[in-house]
Amino acid sequence: CSRPQKVCLCPFLPVHPLKVSTCLYIIQHPAEESRVLRTVPLLAACLPPDKCKILVGRRFNEDRYPELATVCRNPNTLILYPGAEATNLEEVAVMSSSPSVMIIIDGTWSQAKDIFYKNALFRLPKQVQLKPSISSQYVIRTQPTNTCLSTLECAAVALSILEKNQSIQETILHPLQALCSFQLQHGAQIHHSKEHLLKNGLYDKPMPKNKRKLRRMELLVNNVKI
């Protein structure tokens, strides 16, 4: 797991990398590299190196990333990014039996949005999303809503759907659960989502002056999908 001995999570990782046919491309915003409690290294430790490829950056063009460009033009490639144009992944998995390639953007929601809309390559693959049926277990980091998932959680759910194997999700989530448990035992606090805090009058930060951000918070309180 590449963590110090005192906080080693190796006992919670699979003994051997999971055998999957799906290949993940993790597009990671540079700011994620400096975060202490990242989930992508745990994800990579669960999968074979050739099934989890991590590319760090903000801008990706065909000249600098010819392999990625080829992947994006592959009809079997999917990009996990929710929105009006996205199809539920379960529907896509039922219609396709071919091994898939999935692109997942790793960053905050604003960073992911910036990467998605400012890189034309990422609008070539079929856009898919996960049904908001589970709550995030990454409780040591604040999420916008209760159903916003970390990159590792998204990958775990997506792989279990594409590979038609629920145990994959359980195996990948195991080190995340251990990480959160360890942090909570050593002084970390549970981070409720902004949605939860706003609805229960617990949001203690100054409200944003930016009208757009303020509007987003109002939508969260009123259960409007954003």
Automatic annotation (TrEMBL):
The keyword Transferase applies. It comes from Tychaedon coryphoeus. It holds the Pfam family DTW. Coiled coil: none annotated. This is tRNA-uridine aminocarboxypropyltransferase. It is an enzyme of class 2 (transferase). Belongs to the TDD superfamily. DTWD2 family. Its EC number is 2.5.1.25. Signal peptide: none annotated. One of its GO terms (biological process) is tRNA processing. InterPro entries: DTW, DTWD2/TAPT. It catalyses: a uridine in tRNA + S-adenosyl-L-methionine = a 3-[(3S)-3-amino-3-carboxypropyl]uridine in tRNA + S-methyl-5'-thioadenosine + H(+). Keywords: S-adenosyl-L-methionine, Transferase, tRNA processing. Residues 1-188 form the DTW domain. GO terms for molecular function: tRNA-uridine aminocarboxypropyltransferase activity.
